[in-house]
Automatic annotation (TrEMBL):
Subcellular location: Cytoplasm
Region of interest (NMP), ranges: 31-60
Binding site for AMP: 32, 37, 58-60, 86-89, 93, 134, 146
Pathway recorded for this protein: Purine metabolism; AMP biosynthesis via salvage pathway; AMP from ADP: step 1/1
Protein family membership: Belongs to the adenylate kinase family.
Subcellular location, principal: cytoplasm
Protein name: Adenylate kinase
Domain of life: Bacteria
The keyword Kinase belongs to this UniProt entry's keyword annotation: yes
């Protein structure tokens, strides 16, 4: 199985690159952000709870996202592999993912981190905010809060995979195809 963690701050291009990887490698895309927005649009209790935090640029509780990922892994038993996009975002989530995969006799192949500076992130998200309909893209204050949340709670996840020799960082600035080619080169080396 090819199990990738596509990592990086808000607006780094995780979703964009995931679309390319799904087509090329036949992987299942698991984006916790998309799953949570699905819950919100269906008006579930989980969605209502998550919405307040997401609109405010804060992480939702670990148990919520771990539960969603666990369900998706169970529902896709014959998958060739998964792209984890926006998950894990805390060390507790990374540990939970390892044990979920271990129980299925699988593991993370590698983490690929898209490195993009804060000014570029803010520019991309504000630009997208005009038509994405995402409340968390709507103003610079919330975008900065999302980046702060990433720096405070999510950057330690990179250390978690570095300790397992599974981390590769790449420049996330460039054309979408240039970045996709850099990701392909890493996958070819696994
Ligand atoms: P989530 O949906 O995961 O959002 P995010 O991490 O903030 O990331 P984005 O989707 O905004 O950015 P991206 O890196 O995918 O970039 P994209 O390809 O879209 O999370 C939203 C919220 O949900 C969180 O704040 C939290 O509340 C909650 N949540 C989700 N997962 C959670 C978890 N595990 N634990 C707890 N809470 C969780 O690109 C961005 C823009 O840039 C697009 O307009 C795109 O066209 C453009 N772009 C892409 N690549 C390039 C390029 N190379 N050059 C120029 N522009 C580019």
């Amino acid at each position: 199985m090819l199990n990738l963690v596509l990592f990086g701050p808000p607006g780094a291009g995780k979703g964009t690159q995931s679309q390319k990887l799904i087509e090329k490698y036949g992987l299942i895309h698991l984006s916790t952000g998309d799953l949570l927005r699905g819950e919100i649009s269906q008006g579930t209790a989980l969605g209502l709870e998550a919405k307040k935090l997401m609109d405010d640029g804060l992480l939702v509780p670990d148990a919520v996202v771990i539960g969603m990922i666990s369900n998706k892994l169970d529902a896709n038993k014959n998958a060739k592999g998964f792209i984890f996009d926006g998950f894990p975002r805390t060390t507790a989530q990374a540990e939970a993912l390892d044990s979920l995969l271990k129980s299925k006799k699988s593991s993370i192949t590698g983490m690929i981190a898209l490195e993009v500076n804060d000014d570029e992130l803010e520019k991309r998200l504000l630009l997208r905010g005009k038509d994405s309909g995402r409340p968390d893209d709507a103003n610079p204050e919330i975008i900065r809060k999302r980046i702060k949340e990433y720096n405070d709670k999510t950057t330690p996840v990179a250390e978690y995979y570095k300790a397992q020799n599974k981390f590769t960082g790449i420049n996330g600035i460039g054309t979408i195809d240039e970045i996709a080619a850099a990701i392909d080169a890493i996958i070819a080396g696994y």
